[in-house]
UniProtKB/TrEMBL annotation:
This is EAL domain-containing protein. The keyword Phosphoprotein applies. The keyword Phosphoprotein applies. Residues 24-283 form the EAL domain.
């Protein structure tokens, strides 16, 4: 009987695995068509200067309007893209789209050209030989100046290909493009790369920010946030706190002299129209 039971559960297991594999395969097929079918879109989340309360920049975040499953978040499809050759195409699409949007706002809506656009670059892009040319071409094509662009990379991508990343960073630096380290504090960081690589800012991962308040057990998160802010200051880098959700978290970060912040407290990521309204409103009233 035990043997029969074992066999039955084996079958259930197999069929579940099979279903998962089919779903994944279908997603990958859908993903391959998504760019040409124009199913991707960008949401924009404001990055706020905590001193002036004005918008300093916007982070472009991808969404997928799936034909049958509705609006999907990156966590639901980027892992599949990352396992294939799709990721680099997606990031390049995002970069072009974000630059086109920024340029349109600058031209039509007289957006201050101190406001930057930030996009995420996956580790896969650092394996492409021609990534710097692709990025430069997009700037030329869209007419966006390098100083208006910030690229977010993770500690992971730096650690995996240090020399390649270094040469890419240096080449793009010539065009005044800025770099930030995303989710800072969660990776296997080595302090030595921080001054060795020409990055401009650190984004404190939201897990630390959400841990600083209101829980009483949050002292170590507070210390981590504080340490990252001090580190950034010592290395003359800017620092952005990710995932600020409450006034309490914001006040603590202001006390710690954190320069920039991003999070639901200020705004969720917004579709382009709503992001423009937010920008206009904030630039008027601060
Ligand atoms: P990320 O770059 O660290 O982006 C911040 C994520 O935190 C976004 O999730 C944003 O919606 C979310 N967030 C912002 N403020 C808050 C807050 O106050 N509370 C909470 N709970 N969450 C907040 P999203 O849009 O789901 O993106 C998740 C991740 O997917 C991003 O993390 C980034 O790593 C990746 N991603 C998104 N778009 C792209 C893209 O175009 N290319 C690449 N390579 N990765 C992307
Ligand atoms: Mg990011
Ligand atoms: Mg992040
Ligand atoms: Mg994050």
């Amino acid at each position: 009987q035990a043997k029969a039971k074992g066999k039955a559960s084996q079958q259930i297991f197999d069929s579940r695995m099979y279903t998962q594999a089919i779903v994944r395969l279908q997603m990958e097929t859908d993903l391959r068509r998504a760019i040409e079918r124009r199913e991707f879109l960008l949401y924009y989340q404001p990055i706020i200067c905590l001193k002036t309360r004005k918008v300093s920049g916007l982070e472009a975040l991808i969404r997928w309007e799936h034909p049958s499953r509705g609006l999907l978040l990156p966590g639901e499809f980027l892992p599949i893209a990352q396992d294939s050759d799709l990721m680099s195409h997606i990031d390049i699409w995002v970069l072009r789209e974000a630059c086109l949007q920024l340029k349109a706002w600058q031209d039509k809506n007289k957006l201050d050209d101190a406001i930057f656009m930030s996009t995420n670059l996956s580790v896969h892009n650092f394996l492409q030989e021609d990534i710097t040319e692709k990025i430069s071409d997009i700037l030329v094509e869209t007419g966006v100046s390098g100083h208006c662009l910030e690229l977010e990379i993770t500690e992971d991508s730096i650690i995996r290909n240090p020399s390649q990343v270094n040469s890419i960073l240096n080449r793009l630096k010539h065009q005044n493009i800025k770099f930030s380290i995303d989710d800072f504090g969660t990776g296997y960081s080595s302090l030595s790369y921080l001054h060795q690589f020409s990055v401009d800012s650190l984004k404190i991962d939201r897990s630390f920010i959400q841990g600083i308040a209101p829980q009483p057990s949050s002292l170590s998160n507070l210390q981590i946030a504080n340490t990252i802010i001090q580190l950034a200051e010592n290395l003359q880098l800017s620092v952005i706190a990710e995932g600020i959700e409450t006034l309490e978290q914001l006040s603590i970060l202001e006390d710690l002299d954190c320069t920039y912040g991003q999070g639901y407290y200020f705004s969720r990521p917004l579709p382009a129209d709503a992001a423009l309204n937010f920008l206009t409103y904030c630039q008027q009233s601060g």
